[in-house]
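User: Can you write out an input/output pair for a complex, sequences first and structure second?

Assistant: Here is one pair. Inputs:
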Amino acid sequence: MIHIRARRGNLIPEDRRVTMSTSALPKEPVRRKRITLPQLMLTLVLLVGSFIMIVPFLWMLVTSFDWAARLNISFPPKIWPEEPSIRTYEAAFTNINMFRYIGNSTLVSAGVIIISSLSALLSGYALSKLRFKGANFVLLLALSTMMIPFEMTMIPQYLLFSKLGLVDNYLAFYLPAMNYAFGTFLAKAFFDQLPSSLREAAVLDGAKEITVFSRVYLPLCTPIIATMVILLFLGVWNDMLWPLLILKSAAKYTIQIGLAMFTYNNGINQQPSIIMAATTTSLIPVIVVYMFLQRYIIESIALSGIKQ
Amino acid sequence: MDPVTNERRRIGLSSTPEGKWTAEHGKWTKRKFRFTRNDWMGYLFSAPLIIGVIVFAIYPMIAALFMSFHQTSGLNLSGTWVGLSNYRYALEDSLFWQALTNTFVMGIWSVMLGIALSFVLASLINNLKWHLGRNFFKAVYFLPNVVSGVATSLLFSFLFFPSKEGLINFVIGLFGIDPVGWFTNPEVARYSIVLMSLWGALGYNTIIFLAGLQSVPRDLYEAAEVDGAGTYRKWWYITIPYLRPIFVFMLIMGTIGGMKRFTDVWLIGGTAGNPGGSLMTVVLYIYRNAFLSSQMGLATAVSYLLFVIILILTVFLMLLNRRKDSLD
């Protein structure tokens, strides 16, 4: 589907113009930026809104660099730290083992991303291209389990892992990662769009099924892999409930649970600048990812929303 | 049967169902149940998914149902059969009802405000003719969405600091309003959580609404323009009805998410749901009973109640989408 936006100018090729509706056609043939009053007001309203969305971040940054706010929030609120210093970050890193937690989170996220997306791609491929007996049933089963809230299954899952002696073990993250029904759904929809004739040709040439999957189809799957990696990364990196149940020793904590436990044990409103320094640090990976992949993240979210 | 079709079927390329052929040749009927190499491959490829679904979704669901009828001690799956008494206990526990009420209050307000605000926001962004600006605002409004619940809670616990030092209290102080105990006043705490989650979730809804807004066929607007409809009438009579499936989707996702509220209330109010139990939610109630007082049976019973509530709400909301649309 081609979206033709009502944009002024010569960007739209001549042959497409015929498909465009009359109101979308440029009113003036000359490309000229004209700022109308409604557009200006719209921009202003949106700017005020953005400011409200951004202020918490700015306040967090300013406080995190303010050594004067290590015990109490400075009053009145500052737009520049009272005592600018990176000692707050040093204190955060000595009190909270941030490097370790970020490393742990990376390990957990990477494992879950690899296992979940592989499981989703393999099963999506099988459901779309192999059309084996019972494929529809498998898909239906997987999709219907998406309705089950995690909060309902977490207790038996926790008991299962404690029986297996896997509490405080990252396998408790990796094994359930196999169940990524939504990814399967996304992958199947994606494979459905790819031609089956590719497989037909490769199989008749004597290629193994796994070769067809990995050599023929996988290279075409970059968009859907990117979507899954983004959705999984944001989900796993920010998750707290399951790590809270599974991780017992501080050395295994992920960043969220490490941060949560520190504030939980010390009282939530204590040491503003140090907590804000730790929080800022915990946000750096997602913010960096967001800055580089912002467009893809937004597209993935829109896609996942519409698909669901 | 020709050998080519036979070969194609063996390697799973033929889409003709075998049953059709066997119906003509009665003696081959048993072939229908034979697994071809293709079928085995299918199951091999789907094995991680199937194992995952069985072990980490279906088994826990059955185990939870089983446990909810038992009085358990410690970390055991089974215990003594107590029938429905776990359910009865929960339904007679005033704390459970308090948790359910709080969850509903917070859920309804965040869903309603979230949808209304993000729809207005998406409409505003969509009307912006400046392409770069549209992308900029999308990125800015979505930013809080990538921030974890833990970070959001920590940040807002300071922004909503109860004395005059808190940023929000400082701002309202400029208008001569006395400091509000955002997270310390039981009357206010739930609404502070709503405001906080609004900040976090606004961008998500906006992105989805924007995608929906761009899918509204332009000829509908043109027809309305010909009939002399203004911007607001077009918005009210075309955009909103056309986006009803998206509204319903948001309602469903928002409701499900709202019913599962845990991270922020746990971090801000602790396991008691302070202040004064006003931040006690259903999942917090489950967590408390399961992992603090080791009452797994009671906890799973409540989790089943939660599941049933979510299911009923979802089905109810889906029915909203059933009504035939005049635009279809």
